[in-house]
Structure formats: structure tokens, C-alpha cells
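Support reply, case 0932

Customer input (verbatim):
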Amino acid sequence: MSSGIYTAMMGARAQEHALETVNNNLANVNTPGFKRQDTMYREIHNDIRTLGDPLQGEDIRSPVRFLPDDRIAGVMEERFTHFDQGPLKQTGNTFDLAIEGEGFFVLQGENGPIYTRNGSFTLQPDGTLTATSGAPVLDEKDQPIRIPDTASQVSITAEGQVQVGAGTIGRLGIVRFDDPRLLQRAGDSEWTLMSPQLQPQMVDSPNLHQGWLESSNVNPVTTMTAMVKVSRIFELNSKVIQAYKQMDQEAAQEVGRTV
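Our regenerated output:
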């Protein structure tokens, strides 16, 4: 009976992690630039070749497990991000920007650059263009973009050129990564470098849309369905655990009566 409890417990734990991920996706369905996550699991096999003298496992063709097959632990290995394009939504705001295709905006963080797809920017009193978190938006030279207070009209081209009147004051820094999945999530729509070996590359011909925002790539209908499914599986595993506990109690009582 204990093996059944163990299996149900590991199943419930896995569904708990999945439910946390699904709930986070659903909570950010209206967050611009948010990218949905999924959970990845792996099985843990105990192998005597990983213990002590490596010669212990010599000539052993099959790993020796210290747990039977029905007790092999399944644990969450990581949460991975889907970086597919979210739908674009028109806002009409001058400093709302959406990237169509690959690329990230670059922000000035306290411990290094921050990368985001959330182009909901704000103009501060000193003319600094900032993200919703308050971090300054950087240009292609890694300098904060500042709009002169005398500017009457600001336009941003598809290539990221920031134009004030008839002049250009800079160009937004739009970068890409060979494998954005190696970025480390720093917030709902922000990422940082997980490794110094992962270096950004400038996007030569970005495709920006002024007055638009990229919506979250979370599908609310699909995510709600997934949440209901995960919740039911978690509930079923919990009921199995309770059933095995009751069976153990009844078995203990019957043994006591026969002794």
C-alpha cells in the first residue's frame, strides 16, 4: 500500500508545480510582452555507479535502482518559456511600441542590462524614456534615451529611429539571441543574462510599430482548460492518498484483532 501512496504523492506534487505555472500564465494574460511557461519533468534513477568508487559499477550493463519501478521519483526539472509572437494591439499612445518578429528592447538595470518585449514606455519629467518598472530604455549605444522638453512631436520609425520634429536623436537598441530560452526570467516580462557567454546581437532591421503593444501569448481559453484539468488530477491524487491511508488503518485494525 505504501508504494501506492508514494506514487500518488509524487503525482500530486507534480500537478502542484504545474498548477502554479498555469496560474501564473493566467494571471499575466493581459500583461504586454508576457511569454507563457510550461513545466518539464524528469525521472530520478538511483544508480550504484554514481556512488563511491566508480569501479563498483564495472561490468554492470543495467543501472541498479534502489527504488522499485513504481517508486521512481518524477520531479520538476525546470520551467521553460515559449517565445512565440503575441498578437499586436493598437493603443494610439506615442510611446507604446511593439516588436513584430525577433528582438528585445534593452533596459538599464541595477546589475546589468534587462531585456523585454513589453514596449509600454513612459516619458519622465526629465525627458528619460522608461519602462513600466522605471528602468530607462537604452539606445543602440547602451545610453538612456532622453527626449528634449522642447519636443512638440515624437515619432519612432520601424527601424527604431527616434525622431523629434525633423531631426533624429537616436535609435532604440533592439537585440536578439541565438537561443532566448537561455535567458533568465527577472519579472513578468523581463529577462536577464543567465550566463556571460550568452551575448546579445543587434537586430539590423527591426520591425517596430509605434502606438501598438504586443499582447501576452497566453491563450486564456486553453489555459483555463489546462487549469481545470490539472486541478482535477491533483484532486484525484489527493483522494488516492486518503484511500490508501484508510486502507492502512483498516489493515492495522484487522491485524490487531487476529493477534
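We compared this against your earlier run and they match. Two observations from our side: Residues 128 and 146 are 4 Å apart (CA to CA). Residues 45-71 have pLDDT under 50 and may be disordered. Please reopen the case if you see a mismatch on your end.
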